Amino acid sequence: MVSRNLKKILNWIDIIDHLRHKFYIDDYLKRPLKIWMYDKKILLHNLTYFSLQEINWMNISKEYQMYSPEYYLQDYFQCLNHSKNMNHHSIQWTMNPLLADYFIIPSDLMFFYFNRRPATLNDLQFKELLKKLNKFYFEILLTNVQTMFPYWTLASQADYIGANHVIAIPGGRNMGILYSKTQNILKNVIQLAFTGIRNDLLPSNASPQYVYRNISITYRHQYDVIIPQYTPLKWNRSRYDNLDILIKKKKRLFYFAGALYHSTSPLSARSLLSYLWKEIKEKQKFNITTQIQGRQFETIMIIDGHIETDEYIESIQSSIFSLCPEGFLPWSPRLYESIQLGTIPILLVDNIVLPFERFIDWRSFSVKINVSNIRNITYFLYRIDKFEKYVKEKLENALSYLHAFEWPYSINKHLFQLEENSNDRVENVFHYISLELRCRRLEQLYGFTVERLSIKSIEAQRLACTNHPNICPCHNEQRSLAFQEYI
């Protein structure tokens, strides 16, 4: 009798737990994503080494300002808290942290890193910088998150501890800045990071594709959220107003300007571009001009080194395709500059993960050529039927996604620029970040963890995308940008 009653009780507990879980998901589906951000002053009250430094990205060298989203994300979340004019359709600041879906950890790691001008440091000085950033800044920050507030452990299981937290350090984990001890603390924390690389696609004994000063980068596929870099170029949708005129003004097929020799790998995209550039100069590669469907184009221009901004903009705008290889690491703002300036970006990188792949059809407005095929870059043109129609469709498709890469900030003013469309919605980069986080949270509610290849995580993703495709579009691995070329 006792055993039968106990079995009934356990069954009722399972039923109640199932109903509670269903109720929580139903409630989640009816409301915006709720976030709450820690007060940075409280978190860093006992900081000494970095405490006197003013956080001002205007003082950082222009070449590093692409990392300024670290600041913009913090500022935007604060604006959600303080401004009634902010859009709250997809994301909302909650005054009660116990109701938050995600807790935002504010960090200025990248500012302190670039403020020390790491490129000028020798190896010993660089290691000392990493030590100070980890020991005297980041470890203190995380320790205070864990000990001063009760939210770190608001998880149903020990494996989930910290999974309700998000941190924006666009290059920190990727660039290997964080020590393994620190990364272990952040194991379950979702990182907002720049372009990711699918190391899981490589053989287990393969060397890391990207190594920065002897430190390999890391990225957790489908767990971390990929965001675009900041670019100071002004967004101008009017460039796309008359595509026929825009296309007729283009006089060149392919264009690249930038440093060619800064990669340590002879098989990197930039190294192969340098070989191609040498062959072009020696007139061993490509005709000077190419005729396509009655129009004569300059075939390719490659410039080794940086040029003036106005010349750079004019050169990209007058080209059909902009070559977008990786930099020291697998990201470069050139991709977003190309889209802004009305040209078709050609991704020259393997195993890549780009921002918001669930919600953006990158194939519709870009081209991807595997690194090994760079020296035959023009050959894919012969596979294009009705070239001018193809170009126009690519540019039209890009117009649909311009706002997804727009950081509504000016690096000179350092201020958020409120902008709403006719539907009282703002669909800039923050909108897409909220879409990613909203989907990620729903997957977590179904049981998704950082161990994304576990049976439980795979089933959680399946349930989320099958039951709620409007929130979590099913991710087709075969269409992932990481795998194959496309035109």
TrEMBL record:
Single GO BP term: heparan sulfate proteoglycan biosynthetic process
Q: Where is the Exostosin GT47 domain?
A: 31-378
Cite a single GO MF annotation.
glycosyltransferase activity
What family, per the record?
Answer: Belongs to the glycosyltransferase 47 family.
Q: Protein name, please? A: Exostosin GT47 domain-containing protein
